[in-house]
Design a protein that fits this description.
about 600 residues, alpha/beta, Glucose Oxidase, domain 1, eight-stranded mixed β-sheet, lyase, iron-sulfur, Dihydro-acid_dehy_C, Phosphogluconate dehydratase
Amino acid sequence: MALNPVIAEVTARIIERSRDSRATYLANLDAAAAAQPGRAKLSCANWAHAFAASPAVDKVRALDVNAPNLGIVSAYNDMLSAHQPLEEYPALIKDAAREVGATAQFAGGVPAMCDGVTQGRPGMELSLFSRDVIAMATGIALTHDAFDGALYLGVCDKIVPGLLIGALTFSHLPAMFVPAGPMTSGLPNSEKARIRALYAEGKVGREELLAAESASYHGPGTCTFYGTANTNQMLMELMGLHLPGSAFVHPHTPLRTALVKEAAKRVAAITHKGNDWIPVGRVIDEKAVVNGVVGLMATGGSTNLALHLVAMAHAAGIILTLEDLDDISKATPLLAKVYPNGSADVNQFHAAGGIHFVVKELLKAGLAHEDVLTVAGPGLSRYTQEPVLVDGELAWREGADESLDLNILRPASDPFSPEGGLRLLTGNLGRGVIKVSAVKPEHQVITAPAAVFQEQEDFIAAFKRGELDRDVVVVVRFQGPSANGMPELHNLSPSISVLLDRGFKVALVTDGRMSGASGKTPAAIHITPEAAKGGALAYVEDGDVISLNAHTGELKILVDEATLRARTPAQVPASKPGFGRELFGLLRSGVGASDHGASVLFA
């Protein structure tokens, strides 16, 4: 199938826009590769230090200049259910490396916080910044220059983007991302959402709420809704950094163990010491980035990736814009309905055909680039296959040709929607994005008076007092990256959903973020310029009429510019102490704008 003309045009303009920065990046890659492996440059004392604590078998192998040494960078902790299985991975990787004549070392750990724990709490103000901290920690882990390739163990929200940004600064090293898989299905997500709404209305108590939440989040693995963590896993497949089909295999299963071991063997095989050198800086190119964006739109993935994809691309010398995302979304049909965009969870999505089916349909429709380099070799079509165990040995077979459940997955010829999951919004309030894949068309257009808040708690209090039982555009400002670190505002979702269910026209407008679980209520998010940087949100007053139209991509305040700017802007709230927030003042002052990835590294 010929490439879709919109996908071709967007790719071409990204290549042209990135010409100079990408050329510089690739020149740095070639220079690092020409310098040869770390052991060729390190002194005997350096190398002795690197292996001083290793087992004897590894010390002997380390003397062999042809034996690859693999670095392991892990975000393991056992508070994140998705990361608990990573505890056993280093031992598996080291054993597998020895089987193919290589060595592997735990290069370093990176922080990994659980947004599910910090939602609505002060710690959420550190969440987005943790991505760049993870990238820097990855750099520290690998800076010993003693590795020929690396395996990255991480799954969740800011963690995979941070690891990839860090990996891309070591552009000459092969990189494999090794996931843990989803937890088994628990309480259906729709029932969980129902209990949350009842709790927001005061109709059930905390005991009932905790029981529902515990039945939803009940074991090791990623949360089963299609939020940022599982969107990350889809991206690592569409961008060629996973073993094919490894995203949604359950933890602590024989197939998952086999995939972890094969990941180590494959990285050893694609180092510069063999005939199949595949450095990460060549895997992540303009076409791979476009494939990732197409996958995001086709599956209705997390809004957080509108930030992360821009930052990840930048790390590879590629300039990606919100306009690129918007144009790709308009050309990409929505093929999946997974909660919060539907009732199914990721286990049901995987059983219905999963990523293998999505990739197959995107290639058949000419919506994705086949001619890319992946860790599995040349060609995205490798990712139409799924892993299986045959007599205890890992193998791959072709995935489903047809959806096994048309309520969850559909072919590109008969999609849920002719367009993808995200839209760019522009207007006199600034630029932002909105997720529309879970929002009914009749709720995507609203014109209503504003109710303005500067704290999440103030909104929730007003909701409980009944002051928002009307058509309303809820404005929550000073939630941008330079104001307070751009926390997710998912804690507001149950209350806003209740207003919608009561028959009111309602929307959220904010310079903050929503969760990857953004659902049925229209939310104009990531608005830039943010209020703390003089954006129009700082001038909005209660009662101002705001118009949001996701169909046309417009976000406007119906107050003329002169009147608006004649007002005294709201003052940026003082930074709050505690919960580690004092440590991040420098990052708040130096962070870039949301439409450039909200990064400290690429401000």
